[in-house]
Design a protein that fits this description.
single chain, transmembrane, Trypsin Inhibitor V, Chain A, four-stranded mixed sheet, membrane, elongated, about 30% helix, transmembrane helix, 3 domains, PASTA domain-containing protein, 16 strands, PASTA_dom, alpha+beta
């Protein structure tokens, strides 16, 4: 009987020893080896790379123990130079392990081509949304006499009318000719003679008219930049949005030299 108890006791001691050894090795593996192998706790903060040039990335990230890889898909932003970073994964501020690879999307060298939509007869507020959604920029708005209030009458690219379906680079500027809704209103032309150019332009636009051709006249009798002639003349009746041509004085070069 005592022999059986001694055997059981020895077996129990051996099991305790084995359990203790396993526990010790597990502790050393989980708390010492594994963290060391995986660089546990050695993290770096991902910098904000948006706007960086492609040629700056390697040295900048290498100094921070990071790497990068360029995504195959590129984007396009007309306001940024080509080959600058548009997006990154992981995002700036993320905590990652040392040596982690940052995936970046670069700005394309060439703008993608898109087809021009038809904006004519559409309301200006809708047109601005359409242009923004397809990646075009609203340029100059020119109001002309027309019964359609804020209705687009013409769409222009680089000074010329552009037809629907014509391909242009993304980010291009589209100028618009828009109706003022007051095409039949009659106005008296204000007297601009003797005013300077800036005040005259302010008065013209405020009167519901628009600037026409600017001509310069050499004279020594009035200060430079003064309106000396206008067409139509003061008091003439014109429609809203009509242009006013101006003649503006400038000092002769000979007198300026003297």
């Amino acid at each position: 009987m005592s022999k059986i108890k001694d055997s059981i006791k020895k077996v129990g001691i051996h099991l305790l020893i084995i359990f203790g050894v396993v526990t010790l090795f597990s502790f050393l593996f989980l708390k010492v080896f594994l963290p060391s192998y995986t660089n546990h706790g050695q993290t770096v903060s991902v910098p904000d790379l948006e706007g960086f040039g492609h040629d700056e990335l390697e040295s900048y990230l290498k100094n921070r123990n990071l790497q990068y890889e360029v995504e195959l898909d590129s984007g396009f932003n007309a306001d940024l130079p080509s080959l600058t970073v548009l997006k990154q994964i992981p995002k700036a501020g993320s905590q990652v392990k040392s040596g982690r690879k940052i995936y970046v999307t670069l700005n394309s060298k060439n703008a993608p081509m898109i087809k021009m939509p038809n904006l004519v007869h559409s309301q200006l507020k809708n047109v601005q949304e359409i242009l923004a959604n397809i990646g075009l920029v609203r340029g100059e708005i020119k109001y002309v006499p027309d019964i359609g209030n804020n209705v687009v009458l013409e769409q222009k690219y680089r000074g010329r009318n552009i037809a629907e379906g014509f391909e242009i680079p993304k980010g291009s500027q589209i100028d618009l000719v828009v109706g003022d809704g007051l095409g039949n209103q009659i106005l008296d032309v204000p007297n601009l003679i003797g005013m300077d150019e800036v005040d005259a332009e302010f008065l013209i636009i405020g009167s519901g008219l628009r600037m026409g051709r600017i001509n310069y006249v050499t004279t020594d009798s009035v200060p430079q930049g003064t309106i000396v002639r206008q067409i139509p003349p003061a008091g003439a009746e014109v429609k809203t949005g009509e242009p006013l041509d101006l003649w503006i004085s400038e000092i002769s070069k000979e007198r300026d030299f003297e």
